[in-house]
Amino acid sequence: MVQLNYWLWIKIIPMKHAALIESLKKYGTLTDKSIRLLKESGEWRTVGKKIHLHYPGEFCKNLYFVNNGFFRYYEHVNDKDRTVGFSGSGEYMTSIESFFNRVSSRQGIVCESKAEIICLNYFAWKAMCEEDPEFNKISLNISIQKLIECNRHLGIYASINTKEKLSYLCSLYPGILNMVSQKSIASHFHVSEQAMSKIIKKLK
Description:
By secondary structure, this protein is of the alpha+beta class. It has one domain (2-159): Jelly Rolls (Sandwich). The protein is built from 9 helices and 6 strands, in the order ααβββββαβαααααα. Helix 8 crosses helix 9 (193-203).
């Protein structure tokens, strides 16, 4: 039984981390040491729809990799939820200010489609960056890439109307209209739910 359990460990664990490892390799040299630390520290978690990873006002304790599934970021504005972003399969996810500065988060993160994620807590991430300079470079490169993407999205959004924004969002996340409510998408674009309903009908 011990030998069987060990065989399952060496087979299953690498498979669960395979997508994360391949993604990290795009940003730099992933050493054997970092791969080992990822497998030891990265917690695999299945998340059901409408389960919150954290709420506004709480600490975001983890950096996440979305193996599959879909998540929505939101803030409480005038006692209402306002959508501020999304993360899907193959993306990294966290409340940046809360995670890196160890302060309470203005955002919450909620699962909109059943997901499988890998969680790396702040101290595990920090230890990996300190112990392996190559992983620190990867972490920096991911941060830079995220800033570039954010600026690109903001530039595109600033120059197009709401229908075009929704079309662009659907191109980034195919199937989003089947995963996220009209109300949540409407709040993302600062329009009423009724107006969003009309835009969706025109888009289809």
